[in-house]
Structure formats: C-alpha cells, structure tokens
Input
Amino acid sequence: MVKKKNTKGSAKKEIIKNSAAKLFKEKGYSAASMRELASSVGVEAASLYNHINSKSELLHTICYNVAERFISNIDEVEKQEEKAIVKLERLLRFHISEMLDHYEEVYVSDREWRQLDEPYLDEYRELRRDYRKRFSAIIQLGIDEKEFKEIDSNTAVMIFLNAMGAIDQWHRIVHKIERLALEDNFITLLLEGIKK
Output
C-alpha cells in the first residue's frame, strides 16, 4: 500500500522555510532566534520542532534549494547547441528572475552560506566554485569564438554576479520600474559591454 504524502505538513514546512529566509535576510542568521521565527509563523517555538530539526537545518535547506535551481539551469544551458551569447543571456535572465522571484532565499544563500555546519560548508563552497567555473567557461567560449571582447572571463563573472546582486536595491525602492524592463536593462548593459 502506498503511503499518502502529508501535504499539510509539507505546506507548513514551506511556510517555515520562507519565513526563515525572510528573518535570516533581515537579521542575519546568527542573530535570528527560533522564538522570532515561531512568532512570524504564528506557532509556539516548541511546535516548530514538529516540522524541522534545527535552525541550521533551515539554513541548509535554503542554501541547497537555491543551489539546486542554479545548477539545474546551468546544466540545461550547457546542453543547448547555441552561441555563447545566447547561453550567457539565458544565465543572466535566470539570475535576475531568481533575485526577483526568490529574493530572500537567494540573498540568504549568497550572504549567510558561511554559517553552514560541516561537512555542508565545504561542500557548498565547492558548489559555488564549480558554478563560477562553468559560468566562466561559457564566457570563455564566447571569447574563443570571437563573439566577446578579449577580457578575463573570471573577472567578467565577478562583475556580472555583483551587478545582479544589486537587484537587492530594487526591492527597497518605492518607484520600481517593471520587472521585464529591469531585466531587459540589465541584459542590455551587461551584454553590450562584453559583445564584440
């Protein structure tokens, strides 16, 4: 007999994870308390442990969920028989969408990952390194194929990631431009700077 999935429990765990991402983003992982998290979810602190094991488990879940999405995307991008500039645009648009659609999670995974417990800390550091190498390889492909200017591909990755990280500020300003316009502006500025 197939065991029925506890959808109510899964939904509660998702609410807790999302609330944790928001709290960790606002206060920082170290300063955020389980009592505050319980209050934001609307349960007693002890009740949280019916759904999660620890605060560190929440950080692990947030970081690895984000990593899984980014890795799945770059896997798909690499498989496509396309010019490097098309691959790069796909990567950039995905990064921007993640910053807009999963802002707190991406923010926390980018700034609080060093708080992960071992062995996950080393593993996550390696995932980040590997992702950047793969991103850099796509840019290097464009350089080799004469689509891009003769630049250092690793420096380009650093600049692109830092520029897209600035979308953080878009979330805090009152008069935002439409998200598609924001995405298109980023793509135009970043790609035009690298194209031959």
Observations:
- The chain has ten helices and no strands.
- Residues 54-194 form a domain with the Tetracycline Repressor; domain 2 fold (CATH 1.10.357.10).
